[in-house]
């Protein structure tokens, strides 16, 4: 367990120092592969989507397991985790949007937030941009930071590779549209399953990182009351707890694929404002500290029990 914690710390340090590779990121290449497979193999049924998902995920997961078993495999595992984590990148995107809003440049803010969210962004105002960004920081805190760490701790390199590939497939196929409702069903359901525990640990970490008992209680209450009514069984608890910890209101109606979709409110307090974006990033950093401390304590406990 202590070796796992050391690997996590090294990977996080690499991400903080280097950020994502500017060229040749494996997930970008995997996204291009997904598009190619979809062009050749698309079919409007669940079985076809599930078979293509297995074809895309299982070989890379097996390769990660084989590579990790080689001499020096620990180094490769750390590199794979570094590539799977998007901690610094998420901060850069969030701060870029906040900076554009502070300068009154709505067009730049809309362009930047479009990289983070799937909703239509061409006509949204500063409040909607702020809400979308805070929601994305909180949700992607789980998808791009905490869940990869969780699966690395549970299953090493194969776990983190399988999770990140399934998560990428869900981001591309997991929509409830006519095209993907059946074809993307397996990707969406498997992503839900892989995120179930990490999302709840993330929600708990947001509550613990809120900075006081009042914030923690509010975060837990929002999680309990609001998390279950969100369309995603994992994003709901994460964003509700995060919004409660920050004392802001997220959610509300938004336009997706040209259609206005009603969404429940999440959190408590005033609607998110540009100043709440850096607050959300600070909450993410604090929650990450909670996770690292928790893993360290778990490793120490396991060592004490073993000895």
TrEMBL record:
<keyword id="KW-0812">Transmembrane</keyword>
<dbReference type="Pfam" id="PF03186">
    <property type="entry name" value="CobD_Cbib"/>
</dbReference>
<protein>
    <recommendedName>
        <fullName>Cobalamin biosynthesis protein CobD</fullName>
    </recommendedName>
</protein>
<dbReference type="GO" id="GO:0015420">
    <property type="term" value="F:ABC-type vitamin B12 transporter activity"/>
</dbReference>
<keyword id="KW-1003">Cell membrane</keyword>
<comment type="similarity">
    <text>Belongs to the CobD/CbiB family.</text>
</comment>
<comment type="function">
    <text>Converts cobyric acid to cobinamide by the addition of aminopropanol on the F carboxylic group.</text>
</comment>
<feature type="transmembrane region" description="Helical">
    <location>
        <begin position="52"/>
        <end position="85"/>
    </location>
</feature>
<dbReference type="InterPro" id="IPR004485">
    <property type="entry name" value="Cobalamin_biosynth_CobD/CbiB"/>
</dbReference>
<dbReference type="GO" id="GO:0005886">
    <property type="term" value="C:plasma membrane"/>
</dbReference>
<keyword id="KW-0169">Cobalamin biosynthesis</keyword>
<comment type="pathway">
    <text>Cofactor biosynthesis; adenosylcobalamin biosynthesis.</text>
</comment>
<keyword id="KW-0472">Membrane</keyword>
<feature type="transmembrane region" description="Helical">
    <location>
        <begin position="145"/>
        <end position="166"/>
    </location>
</feature>
<feature type="transmembrane region" description="Helical">
    <location>
        <begin position="288"/>
        <end position="306"/>
    </location>
</feature>
<keyword id="KW-1133">Transmembrane helix</keyword>
<dbReference type="GO" id="GO:0009236">
    <property type="term" value="P:cobalamin biosynthetic process"/>
</dbReference>
<dbReference type="GO" id="GO:0048472">
    <property type="term" value="F:threonine-phosphate decarboxylase activity"/>
</dbReference>
């Amino acid at each position: 367990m202590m070796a796992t914690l050391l690997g996590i710390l090294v990977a996080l340090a690499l991400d903080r120092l280097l950020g994502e590779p500017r060229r040749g990121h494996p997930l970008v290449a995997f996204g291009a592969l997904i598009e190619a497979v979809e062009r050749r193999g698309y079919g409007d049924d669940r079985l076809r989507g599930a078979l293509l998902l297995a074809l895309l995920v299982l070989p890379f997961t097996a390769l990660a397991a084989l590579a990790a078993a080689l001499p020096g495999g620990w180094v490769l595992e750390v590199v794979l985790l570094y590539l799977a984590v998007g901690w610094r990148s998420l901060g850069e995107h969030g701060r870029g949007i906040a900076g554009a809003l502070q300068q009154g440049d709505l067009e730049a803010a809309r362009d930047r937030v479009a990289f983070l969210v799937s909703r239509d962004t061409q006509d949204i105002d500063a409040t909607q941009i702020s809400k979308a960004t805070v929601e994305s920081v909180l949700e992607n805190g789980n998808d791009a930071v905490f869940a990869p760490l969780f699966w690395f701790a549970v299953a090493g390199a194969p776990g983190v590779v399988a999770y990140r590939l399934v998560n990428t497939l869900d981001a591309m196929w997991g929509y409830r549209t006519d095209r993907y409702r059946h074809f993307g069903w397996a990707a969406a359901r498997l992503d839900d399953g892989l995120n179930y525990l990490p999302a709840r640990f993330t929600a708990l970490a947001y509550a613990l990182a809120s900075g006081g008992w009042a914030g923690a209680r509010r975060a837990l209450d929002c999680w309990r009351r609001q998390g279950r009514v969100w369309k995603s069984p994992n994003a709901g608890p994460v964003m509700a707890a995060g919004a409660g910890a920050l004392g802001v209101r997220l959610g509300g109606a938004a336009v997706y694929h040209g259609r206005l979709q009603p969404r429940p409110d999440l959190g408590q307090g005033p609607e998110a404002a540009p100043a709440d974006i850096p607050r959300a990033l600070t909450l993410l950093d604090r929650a990450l500290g909670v996770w690292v401390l928790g893993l360290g304590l778990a490793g120490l406990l396991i060592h004490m029990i073993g000895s």
